[in-house]
Design a protein that fits this description.
The structure holds two protein chains of two kinds.
Chain A lengths: L2 H8 L7 H4 L5 H5 L6 H7 L26 E6 L10 E6 L3 H6 L19 H4 L19 H8 L6 H13 L4 H7 L26 H19 L7 H11 L3 H15 L3 H35 L17 H13 L4 H17 L7 H16 L13 H7 L15 H9 L4 H13 L11 H48 L5 H16 L2 H10 L5 H20 L5 H20 L1 H26 L10 H33 L1
Antiparallel strand pairs in A: 1-2
Helix pairs in contact in A: 10-11, 10-12, 13-16, 14-15, 18-20, 19-20, 20-24, 20-26, 21-23, 22-23
Chain B lengths: L1 H7 L4 H4 L7 E5 L3 E6 L7 E4 L1 E6 L7 E4 L2 H4 L7 E4 L10 H15 L8 H4 L10 H10 L9 E5 L7 H12 L4 E6 H8 L5 E6 L4 E7 L2 E2 L5 E3 L3 H14 L12 E5 L8 E4 L10 H18 L20 H6 L4 E4 L5 E4 L1 H9 L22 H10 L6 H5 L2 E4 L8 H12 L7 E3 L3 H5 L1 H10 L9 E2 H7 L3 H5 L2
Parallel strand pairs in B: 1-7, 7-8, 9-17, 17-18
Antiparallel strand pairs in B: 1-2, 2-3, 4-5, 4-6, 8-19, 9-10, 10-11, 10-12, 13-14, 15-16
The chains are: A mainly alpha, B alpha+beta.
The complex binds adenosine-5'-triphosphate (ATP) and magnesium ion (MG).
Protein name (chain A): SWR1-complex protein 4
Family (chain A): Belongs to the SWC4 family.
Main location (chain A): nucleus
């Protein structure tokens, strides 16, 4: 019940005397948090005023046992700044610990509050505690003269060098950033006249390595200029050493490798890990495996055809293993044995890892590659999409036409390539290959290598053909020569002019030349070397004949035909490659030609004595030597190429 | 007593390197502009970057501009909504932006009076106040930020003259003693305590990838695309309009009352009617819809976390879409009371376009995204522009920021995608589990930077500005 209600009931005047009541009120009771609600209190203290009016009183100030120290907004300067910017931060008034931490400027830092707005104020203020963290790299200093004498570089103008050095200083030698922000634009050349466009040499693309190389070069040289090597401290010397040893190409290569490493696919990564694990396992268990294998051999009894040695070396190669397996199969051993065999074959493949492309080897690889394949690969369900790189790696091709030959193994292609129609030819090819130091079994028969190998073999075949021809021609020439000499001797004896034979030859040849088709013409040009023209023509005649016959014979042997064409093209290519070198040769060839004419002239006009007898024979020897030289050069060229391919 | 003393004692400056100078940090974004004092852990003032425009009836040339959440959400007669930022994430309307920012700063942070109402254009300028009088007034008036250095943020691709506008406003209009312009990618990396990081910022208008090396962005590696918050909103709109029957988005302001209905039943609500000629502009409705959609995004949308993409196949051979259908749905109630259980597939579908361009919904107004615009593609194209040696390091320090990265499962999914794209590298994400840190990442980084003692020497002072002009920004804020 409220006090006012009570009063209403009693009929007391409503303008009750709250003031009068006030003194009665026990302040602490009202104020104190008794935990009772007002209504309850009202009941307890009857006649309590309806509203207690309490003079507002604030909470007393707490008596603190320490003197409060006010904070104040203190302005401060920063010696790392040149513009005297004054900032303010809150500091305890007269905080000594803080002031002590600051490197106090000559003037007393505590007078800071009386700072003025002028420049000097900054120096009288406390310096920022942080100013000392302002460190900069030393910029290599050089004068124009020094630049001219020591630092010149065709690739870098002075302006660009300056730009680079400034940028390097700006970004504190963070090369990644420097390379990112490098935007050097060569200055526009002053225009000569109104019409001409402003000639701006295009900005050279600079890689980070180029920049580093140039900067280190400049920095190292200026370092020496300012401080000769002899008086350098060891740390300086080290820095100098490092800068001079920087090799941009090495860096580029390293980055390329790093990129490849990063772009490995999951499969590649797993395969690599797997191989490494396998390898370490094999290395660890080698001894045990050898013993096991030996025990197995002993148990099996030595298969026939295998020499009775306990050495297992011969099974280390895949060839040996294939043989062994065949033997074993022939003996119709049980399945279990086969299994063990396979495991061993895996071993063997590991033993000479880059071992030939044998089927076993392949199987092993497949099983390794197959493992991770089964795992779910992210991004695609179903068959995995191969990237271009992977397609290349796995030799996936998308032929437009249907493949005629069906499925083929690369090793089949290799062996087929090495075989010629005749056994002699085959052995010659083999000899050429050994000369080029190319193993009959390629170490890394990737798709690329195999195609190159085939091309090489084709070239070798042509080469052999050409060689044979030239030998034949040489022989013929000798015969003619002999005849001619005979004739001349006869002529001298009879004083009768006899030109017919050579003339006849000439005519004949000319006629044939006309018949040569365009391709042959091209070829002649390409092949015109220090060899005798005659040789060439003869050859060409034959070649073109051959072509014609091939065409005529309904392309019964398309492969060879195509191969020939390929060859020609390749030879042409090679010739083009060598054009520079051949220019003088060609000239010589022409000279030779002239000489030949002259020979005939001699033969016609002058008498010939035995001493000078052999311009022709001399020519012949030079010719054959030339041929030899040429074939040697072709061989070396091819071998160079092929070794490059091999390496690739 | 002892504790009382400890609380008043400043932390040892040597410990954290802080030395506060009551600097302000301003971080404008497409959806909101964040402002606050450096050294604090969240911005005190968060103002929408949208502003209201009310055309004055007497003089159609004059429009009244409204700023702040409290005024732009009221359907005033003929109100229209614009944004000071462009779809690019850069400032579009500098004059209005300056006013909006000033509002953001002065309304909550500084007790200095804003520039006189007459000159700031906040009120109706149809009174006949002669120009010269107001000009005098401005001269005498204290500039609003005379005491506070200002750190402003910008996007990584902001370039040219746009970089100079900020300092002009700060120095000329506001009288700041010092100014700095920082890239928001760098700041987000700082907020995660990383000087070197690959920052993935998914805001409202843009998703951007910023490689940061030692506190400096690598400009050539900055990539971006519009597949961010607004894109997801549009995906939701497409999803709603293509569902059977179409789901209308009715914003709050249109509802006067509603009664609860069962799931899927038509809404029973009374709608507000506007007198002819006083209807808000369609842009107002669009803005209000956006608020509903943000709510929807917050509570319903989820990222498909694999394995594989939503459009792909699972290891068992079925499609992931089928798998997703088995997942539980989530209910959502529209402002008009209409509600439904949203199936899981829809919940995943709305955002899948950010990862897989093929899964994005499209129509005439929303062209399908290109394959190069997805997060993964953006990241790889960004990385390809960066030095090889740095790439693994960046992949190991991926910082995720921006409110649109807050979808459940976003980080896991990105981790999966990146690990699949770079199997040879360890991919590690840094994504704060705190909503505010994700939302205000770049502001927080700015707050840290501007309160560092070592930062004092970097500020561009008023004096330097007077000496060199606004071009100094390009030279100093690299
Ligand atoms: N909890 C949430 N879940 C998902 N999305 C959200 C959430 N909260 C807000 N969003 C969306 O995030 C976007 C805003 O993000 P943020 O604030 O990072 O952008 P901003 O920085 O203003 O824009 P920008 O970076 O493009 O300039 C809006 O599109 C909003 O719808
Ligand atoms: Mg943002």
């Amino acid at each position: 019940m409220m006090g006012s209600d009570a009063r209403d009931v009693l009929g007391l005047p409503s303008a009750g005397p709250p003031k009068a009541a006030t003194p009665k009120v026990q302040k602490p009771k009202v104020r104190g948090p008794t935990g009772m609600s007002r209504e309850v209190l009202d009941l307890k203290y009857e006649g309590a005023p309806p509203i207690s009016i309490v003079a507002p009183k604030f909470k007393e100030k707490p008596k603190l046992p320490f003197k409060p120290r006010p904070w104040e907004e203190t302005p401060f300067g920063n010696s790392a700044r040149k513009d005297g910017l004054i900032l303010r931060h809150w500091r305890r008034k007269g905080d000594v610990s803080n002031a002590a931490a600051l490197p106090v400027t000559p003037a007393d830092s505590n007078t800071a509050s009386e700072m003025e707005q002028d420049e000097k104020a900054a120096t009288t203020l406390s310096d920022s505690h942080w100013a000392r963290f302002n460190v900069k790299v030393a910029r290599p200093q050089y004068t124009d003269e020094q630049y001219e004498t020591h630092l010149r570089n065709e690739d870098w103008s002075k302006e660009e060098t300056d730009y680079l050095v400034d940028l390097a200083a700006d970004f504190d030698l963070r090369w990644v950033v420097i390379a990112d922000r490098y935007e050097y634009q060569p200055k526009e050349q002053p225009k000569e006249n109104e019409d001409s466009m402003a000639v701006t040499p295009p900005a050279k693309p600079r890689t980070q390595e180029d920049m580093k190389a140039r900067y280190y070069d400049v920095a190292a040289k200026t370092m020496v200029l300012h401080n000769p090597l002899s008086s350098m401290s060891s740390s300086e010397f080290d820095a100098h050493e490092k800068m001079t040893k920087y090799d941009p190409n090495q860096e580029k290569k390293r980055k390329m490798c790093a990129e490849q490493l990063m772009n490995r696919t999951d499969e590649e990564k797993n395969e690599e890990e797997m191989l490494l694990r396998e390898l370490s396992r094999i290395v660890l268990n080698q001894e045990k495996l050898f013993n096991e294998r030996k025990a197995l051999y002993d148990r099996l009894g030595i298969p026939p055809g295998v020499p009775q040695t306990h050495s297992t070396a011969m099974y280390q190669s895949s060839q040996g293993l294939t043989q062994l397996m065949q033997n074993l199969l022939a003996q119709n051993k049980s399945k279990e044995l086969e299994k063990k065999e396979k495991r061993r074959s895996a071993m063997g493949a590991e033993g000479d890892f880059p071992g030939g492309p044998s089927g076993l080897d392949r199987g092993q690889r497949h099983s390794i590659g197959g493992g991770p394949d089964k795992r779910f690969s992210f991004g695609q369900g179903g068959p995995r999409q191969l990237s271009a790189r992977e397609e290349q790696k796995y030799g996936v091709s998308h032929p437009n036409e249907r493949l005629t030959g069906g499925v083929q193994f690369r090793h089949e292609r290799i062996t087929k390539a090495g075989q010629a129609k005749s056994g002699v030819q085959t052995s010659r090819i083999g000899a050429a290959l050994t000369e080029l130091r190319i193993p009959p079994r390629l170490t890394m028969p990737t798709a690329k290598v195999v195609t190159e190998y085939e091309r090489l073999i084709e070239s070798i075949k042509t080469l052999l053909e050409v060689r044979k021809l030239s030998e034949k021609l040489d022989g013929e020439i000798k015969v003619w020569q002999a005849q001619k000499e005979q004739q001349e001797a006869k002529d001298r004896g009879e004083e009768v002019k006899e030109e017919e034979p050579s003339q006849a030859v000439e005519n004949e040849e000319e006629d044939e030349t006309k018949e040569l088709d365009e391709q042959a013409e091209r070829r002649r040009k390409a092949e015109a070397e220090d060899d005798d023209e005659d040789d060439e023509k003869e050859e060409e005649k034959e070649d073109s004949d051959e072509d014609a016959s091939l065409k005529g014979s309904h392309k019964d042997d398309e492969d060879t035909f195509a191969g020939d064409q390929d060859d020609e093209e390749e030879e042409e290519e090679e010739d083009e490659d060598e054009e520079d070198e051949e220019m003088p040769d060609e000239a010589e060839g022409e000279v030779d030609d002239d000489e030949n004419d002259a020979d005939e002239g001699n033969a016609n006009g002058e008498n010939e004595d035995e001493g000078a007898s052999s311009p022709a024979s001399v020519a012949h020897t030079t010719r054959s030597e030339g041929l030899r030289k040429r074939s040697a050069s072709v061989i070396s060229h091819i071998s160079n190429k092929s070794s490059k391919r091999q390496r690739r | 007593m002892a504790t009382g003393q400890a609380s008043t004692k400043p932390p040892d400056a040597n410990e954290y390197g802080g030395d506060e100078i009551s600097a302000l940090v301003l971080d404008p974004g497409y959806s909101t502009t964040r402002a606050g004092f450096a050294g604090e852990d969240v911005p005190k003032s968060i103002v929408p970057s949208y502003y209201g425009l009310i055309p004055s009836e007497s003089t159609p040339k004059h429009t009244k501009q409204l700023f702040g959440d409290n005024s732009i959400n009221i359907p005033l007669p003929r109100i229209s909504i614009s944004n000071v930022m462009s779809k690019d994430g850069t400032v579009e309307d500098w004059d209005t932006a300056a006013k909006l920012w000033e509002y953001a700063i002065t309304s909550r942070l500084t007790n200095t009076k804003p520039t006189p109402l007459v000159s700031n254009g906040l009120n109706d300028p149809n009174e006949d106040i002669t120009e010269d009088i107001t000009m005098e007034g401005v001269e005498e008036q204290e500039k609003p930020l005379g005491e506070n250095p200002l750190l402003m943020t910008e996007s990584g691709w902001n370039a040219g003259k746009d970089r100079e506008k900020g300092i002009e406003i700060a120095m000329e209009n506001w009288g700041c003693p010092a100014f700095w312009l920082a890239r928001n990618g760098v700041l987000a990396a700082f907020a995660s305590g990383k000087p070197t990081a690959l920052v993935i910022d998914i805001g409202a208008s843009t998703i951007s990838i910023t490689p940061v090396h030692d506190g400096l962005i690598l400009k050539k590696g900055v990539t971006r695309s519009p597949l961010a918050g607004n894109f997801v909103s549009n995906q939701l709109r497409l999803l709603f309009s293509s569902s059977q029957p179409p789901i209308p988005i009715t914003p709050h302001y249109l509802i006067t009352s509603k009664t609860p209905v069962d799931a899927g039943a038509p809404a029973q609500a009374t709608y507000r009617a506007f007198a002819p000629g006083t209807e808000p502009h369609p842009s107002f409705r669009h803005f209000q819809e956006e608020r509903v959609l943000t709510e929807f995004k917050e509570s319903v949308v989820n990222v498909w976390t694999g394995p594989g993409r939503l459009g792909g196949h699972s290891a068992q051979g079925g499609t992931n879409m089928d798998a997703a259908r088995q997942h539980p749905g989530k209910p959502f109630e529209m402002p008009d009371g209409w509600n439904q259980m949203f199936p899981a597939l829809d919940r995943y579908r709305a955002i899948e376009g950010i990862f897989d361009h093929k899964m994005a919904l499209s129509d005439a107004n929303n062209p399908p995204p290109s394959p190069g615009q997805t997060v993964t593609a953006l990241i790889s194209s960004s990385l390809s522009q960066v030095d090889v040696d740095l790439r693994p390091h960046l992949l190991g320090n991926i910082v995720i920021t921006g409110a649109s990265s807050w979808y459940a499962g976003f980080t896991d999914r990105l981790q999966q995608e990146l690990q699949a794209a770079y199997p040879g590298v360890r991919v590690r994400m840094v994504a704060s589990g705190q909503m505010v840190e994700r939302k205000f990442g770049s502001w927080i980084g700015g707050s840290i930077l501007a309160s560092l003692g070592t930062f004092h020497q970097l500020w561009i002072s008023k004096k330097e500005y007077d000496e060199h002009g606004s071009g100094i920004v390009e030279k100093r804020c690299k």
